[in-house]
């Protein structure tokens, strides 16, 4: 009985170690190309300081970098991860509707909703805000709004089948 317990403990510890390295590997592979994207933005745009880098997965995959130029202008840069398209899309934050304005607009339209996130998105070569939330009917909503004026471009509603 004593050896069975020791064996079980060894197996559990081995599983935890394996899961830790598996998780670390997945996280590293997810962010491995971030450095390439950072270098590309610093060399091909006037962005001199990078604040955040995220990934957007829609019809095509993009790295989305928020940064600042030497003159202090805030910018959002979309870097396509497709081998076919190498063109960066640079957006001046002074020309767009802000994340806070999108949030305020969303609050007015959906009082009984739970906000999940607001992130930059790119669909059909059009920069958008992706607003994800759960509405009053317990549906998971993806709302795609113009980054320039907040107009709705597309919306997906996913109905929960498990309660």
TrEMBL record:
Is Transcription among the key words of this record? no
**Carries keyword Metal-binding?**
no
Membrane-spanning parts: 6-26
Among PROSITE patterns, the record links this protein to: PROKAR_LIPOPROTEIN
The record places domain Cell wall elongation regulator TseB-like at 38-80
Name the UniProt record assigns to this protein: Cell wall elongation regulator TseB-like domain-containing protein
Keywords of this entry? Membrane, Transmembrane, Transmembrane helix
């Amino acid at each position: 009985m004593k050896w069975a317990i020791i064996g079980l403990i060894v197996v559990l510890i081995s599983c935890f170690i394996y899961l830790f390295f598996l998780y670390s590997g997945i996280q590293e592979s997810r962010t491995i190309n971030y450095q390439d994207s950072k270098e590309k933005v610093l060399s091909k745009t006037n962005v001199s300081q990078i604040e955040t880098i995220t990934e957007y997965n829609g019809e095509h995959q993009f790295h989305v970098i928020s940064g600042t130029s030497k003159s202090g202008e805030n910018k959002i840069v979309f870097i396509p991860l497709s081998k076919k398209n190498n063109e960066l899309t640079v957006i001046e934050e002074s020309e767009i509707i802000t994340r806070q304005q999108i949030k305020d607009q969303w609050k007015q339209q959906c009082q009984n909703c739970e906000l999940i996130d607001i992130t930059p998105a790119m669909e059909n070569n059009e920069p958008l805000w992706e607003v994800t939330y759960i509405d009053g009917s317990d549906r998971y909503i993806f709302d795609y709004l113009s980054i320039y004026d907040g107009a709705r471009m597309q919306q997906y509603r996913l109905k929960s089948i498990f309660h």
